[in-house]
Design brief:
The chain has about 600 residues and is of the alpha+beta class. Helices cover about 50% and strands about 20% of the residues. The radius of gyration is 55 Å and the shape is elongated. It catalyses: ATP + protein L-histidine = ADP + protein N-phospho-L-histidine.
Length: about 600
């Protein structure tokens, strides 16, 4: 039993671990939600910025070709050649005013080669462009050099933001002046702001100097995204790009970047309304040389974190309670384990008994295999006796002759007889050794077994009976080594059994012929073919069953069944079929272990 202090310490430790786990769960949940939410916002921003860039490009492209078309009108060339004639200029002013209404542009004006406007669509307005010098504008410089000019700036006369498209006006290959079409980009800003409000994001467009001139937030306009040095302020004032409008600095503080590129970052932007975090993604518009920035507010993501984190904490606590419950349950299961161990012990004892019974069954099977061997030997005993008696009778005859030769002092003849007697003794020893090896009980040990050698040893055993029956034997063996992995004694038993069955089957045949052939590709195939009556179709499916026998193949009916089990134990198979010319063919198919051709 635990003491009170031990239980208290355990409870305190468990509480500390529970709190640490809760804090880790909250931290991991916060990180995961923030990471996935930011990635989702970035993915959505990529789609939004592409749509916004396409919209702005299309809006500006609507006016892009207007100056090139106007420059070809002879009225502009005539006005530049006859600009001192008031009637010509009045006609030109009226034409430009009409074009301004038709094209829905902000203003259209024509300058001479010095950059001074000689006619304009707003010629009758107080802030008319007529007689104003625009030679300092980059769009004029590009157009007067023979190129198409484009530029963003705040008008020095109108103080309005505009995008300028300019084109040279030629007379006999010489640039006389420049026609300029100004687009009021405040309309583009209004339409873009409507798109941004519908998609719940903010946007701003900056020039190459990082000055924001278009934005869905008015407080961001005419502010620099980077610090303004004195040199940069002087350059901006000299270019008059923003006329007399003051340029401030926007508090644009980077928090962190997404991925390896810097096209997507999270910024903190300060304004009079406070500090807000936005996920910023920008993209360059090559035609206008603008940078379009999409700013998706991070506030909705941050506001969604607490309830989800609360849910994560709840799930963690439920899991922790489940673990505590499981630990308590394990204590209750401890008592059941003892009974389970006792049951397992009984199962082990029963398994041991089954293993012993299985061993006895294997021993019985080995005895049955040995009995089948002896049955084969018994059926061949007459031939075996005949095979042994012939050398023994010859030995006796040569021994008697040797005794006579010695008595007559015929040493050479006696020596010749003794040599023959030794050869007969060796023959007897080979026959007896072969039968002794065959009848020996196998230990069931597998090793590399030479096929040719096993067939030759089996033929040695049945050769006497074949000679007695007058059976012709033809053998086709493989050249070189051909080995399988198995018990050589048991393989020899199968071969002797099949050959013996073939001899019995051919007893009533006139032409007695036994053909043995071995061929090999990926497996070893041994075929044993006799010239007997063959196997009836009704017997094909039963011939390998225990105790099944036929009138042609006498015996207990165990030989083929045992042979099949021996071959299957070597991962092989044994089949039977009838030859077309008559007789049965048994096929033994075994896995190849080693093949070396000569």
């Amino acid at each position: 039993m635990f003491s009170f202090s031990t239980i208290k310490k355990r409870n305190v430790l468990m509480s500390i671990l529970l709190i640490i786990g809760l804090l880790l769960t909250l931290k991991i949940t916060h990180w995961y939600l923030l990471d996935q939410g930011t990635k989702n916002i970035a993915k959505q921003s990529e789609k939004q910025i592409n749509e916004l860039v396409i919209f702005i490009d299309n809006a500006l492209a609507h006016y892009e070709n207007i100056p090139a078309v106007l420059a070809k009108n002879p009225i502009l060339e005539q006005g530049l050649l006859d600009q001192q004639n008031p009637k010509t200029i009045d006609k030109l002013n009226a034409y430009l005013s009409e074009l301004q209404l038709v094209t829905e542009s902000s203003d259209i004006y024509l300058t001479d080669a010095l950059g001074v406007a000689i006619a304009a669509s707003n010629w009758d307005q107080p802030n008319s462009f007529v007689n104003h010098d625009y030679s300092f504008r980059p769009y004029f410089i590009e157009a007067i050099s023979g190129k198409s000019g484009r530029y963003y700036a705040v008008g020095t006369s109108s103080n309005k933001r505009g995008f300028y498209f300019a084109n040279p006006v030629y007379h006999k290959g010489v640039v006389l002046g420049v026609i300029v079409v100004k687009v009021d980009i405040s309309l583009v800003e209004q339409q873009s702001s409507g798109i941004a409000i519908a998609s719940q994001y903010e946007f701003m467009i900056s020039d190459p100097d990082n000055i924001v001139f278009l934005s869905s937030v008015s407080g961001w306009r005419f502010n620099s995204l980077t610090p303004l040095s004195q040199a940069k302020r002087f350059a901006l004032n000299s270019s008059k790009r923003y006329a007399n409008r003051p340029i401030g600095e926007l508090s644009f503080i980077p928090e962190f970047a997404l991925g390896e590129s810097n096209t997507t970052q999270v910024y903190q932007i300060s304004s009079y309304e406070g500090k807000e975090k936005y996920l910023e993604r920008h993209q360059l518009m090559p035609n206008a040389n603008w940078n379009v920035h999409i700013l998706a507010p991070m506030k909705p993501l941050y506001e969604s974190l607490p309830p989800i984190m609360l849910l994560g904490a709840t799930l963690y606590l439920l899991f922790a309670l489940f673990v505590i419950y499981s630990l308590e349950r394990r204590k209750n299961l401890a008592r059941m384990r003892q009974a389970q161990n006792q049951l397992e012990q009984r199962v082990k004892e029963r398994t041991l008994e089954l293993e012993q019974a299985n061993t006895q069954l294997k021993d019985t099977q080995d005895e049955l295999i040995q009995a089948a061997k002896l049955t084969v030997i018994g059926s061949l005993s007459a031939s075996i006796n005949h095979e042994l008696n012939q050398p023994l009778a010859a030995l006796r005859s040569y021994a008697q002759n040797t005794q006579t030769f010695i008595g007559r002092n015929m040493i050479e003849d006696a020596s010749s007889n003794i040599k023959i007697m030794i050869e007969l003794t060796d023959r007897l020893a080979d026959i007896i050794g072969q039968f002794k090896s065959f009848t020996r009980k196998s230990q069931g040990k597998d090793n590399a077994t030479e096929i040719n050698q096993s067939i030759e040893q089996a033929i040695t055993i049945v050769q006497p009976e074949m000679d007695k029956q007058g059976i012709k034997l033809s053998i086709v063996l493989l050249k070189g080594k051909c080995q399988i992995w198995g018990d050589s004694v048991r393989l020899q038993q199968v071969l002797v059994n099949l050959m013996s069955n073939a001899i019995v089957a051919m007893q009533q045949s006139k032409d007695k012929h036994l053909h043995i052939e071995v061929y090999c590709d990926t497996k070893v195939n041994i075929s044993i073919q006799d010239s007997g009556p063959g196997v009836r179709e009704s017997q094909m499916s039963k011939i390998f069953e225990p105790y099944y026998t036929t009138s042609e193949r006498q015996g207990l009916g165990l030989g083929l069944s045992i042979s099949q089990r021996i071959i299957e134990s070597m991962q092989g198979s044994i089949t039977v079929e009838n030859a077309q010319q008559g007789g049965a063919i048994f096929h033994i198919i075994l896995p190849l272990y080693l093949r070396e051709e000569v």
